[in-house]
Amino acid sequence: MAKVTLEEGYTPSDVEPFMNERQREYFRRKLLSWKNDILREAQDTLVALQSENENHPDIADRASSETDRAIELRARDRQRKLTGKIDAALARLEDGSYGYCEETGEPISLKRLDARPIATLSLEAQERHERRERVYRDD
């Protein structure tokens, strides 16, 4: 694959062909940067948890510390799941299906992809999906 160069400040636009090489490179870089940020935060958390060897004589302080640790670990678990979605989006970039709605096959808007690069449904399909979930959840 030829190296695609992106000028500083490039953002995909609707005047270009959808998911051309520049757009795919833009989203690939965006996804990789997001994943690297998550991995760096996870590493920082791991280091902080390993170095935190506080012995709190006060039971309230100990409980607070344990609660903080549990919240941090839950956040890291959500981030771990997010890295899986990022990897799946990167795989879709490779196979050519990135940017297309899994339900309709139609292009997902560039604005939606820029805001949520792991999106697999168009805004309309996502709204239908959420309405169906709400209907069945109320039962």
From TrEMBL:
<dbReference type="InterPro" id="IPR048489">
    <property type="entry name" value="DksA_N"/>
</dbReference>
<comment type="subunit">
    <text>Interacts directly with the RNA polymerase.</text>
</comment>
<dbReference type="GO" id="GO:0005737">
    <property type="term" value="C:cytoplasm"/>
</dbReference>
<feature type="domain" description="Zinc finger DksA/TraR C4-type">
    <location>
        <begin position="96"/>
        <end position="131"/>
    </location>
</feature>
<dbReference type="Pfam" id="PF21157">
    <property type="entry name" value="DksA_N"/>
</dbReference>
<dbReference type="Pfam" id="PF01258">
    <property type="entry name" value="zf-dskA_traR"/>
</dbReference>
<comment type="function">
    <text>Transcription factor that acts by binding directly to the RNA polymerase (RNAP). Required for negative regulation of rRNA expression and positive regulation of several amino acid biosynthesis promoters.</text>
</comment>
<dbReference type="InterPro" id="IPR012784">
    <property type="entry name" value="DksA_RNA_pol-bd"/>
</dbReference>
<dbReference type="InterPro" id="IPR000962">
    <property type="entry name" value="Znf_DskA_TraR"/>
</dbReference>
<keyword id="KW-0479">Metal-binding</keyword>
<feature type="domain" description="DnaK suppressor protein DksA N-terminal">
    <location>
        <begin position="23"/>
        <end position="93"/>
    </location>
</feature>
<dbReference type="GO" id="GO:0010468">
    <property type="term" value="P:regulation of gene expression"/>
</dbReference>
<feature type="zinc finger region" description="dksA C4-type">
    <location>
        <begin position="101"/>
        <end position="125"/>
    </location>
</feature>
<dbReference type="InterPro" id="IPR037187">
    <property type="entry name" value="DnaK_N"/>
</dbReference>
<dbReference type="InterPro" id="IPR020458">
    <property type="entry name" value="Znf_DskA_TraR_CS"/>
</dbReference>
<keyword id="KW-0863">Zinc-finger</keyword>
<keyword id="KW-0963">Cytoplasm</keyword>
<protein>
    <recommendedName>
        <fullName>RNA polymerase-binding transcription factor DksA</fullName>
    </recommendedName>
</protein>
<keyword id="KW-0862">Zinc</keyword>
<comment type="similarity">
    <text>Belongs to the DksA family.</text>
</comment>
<dbReference type="GO" id="GO:0008270">
    <property type="term" value="F:zinc ion binding"/>
</dbReference>
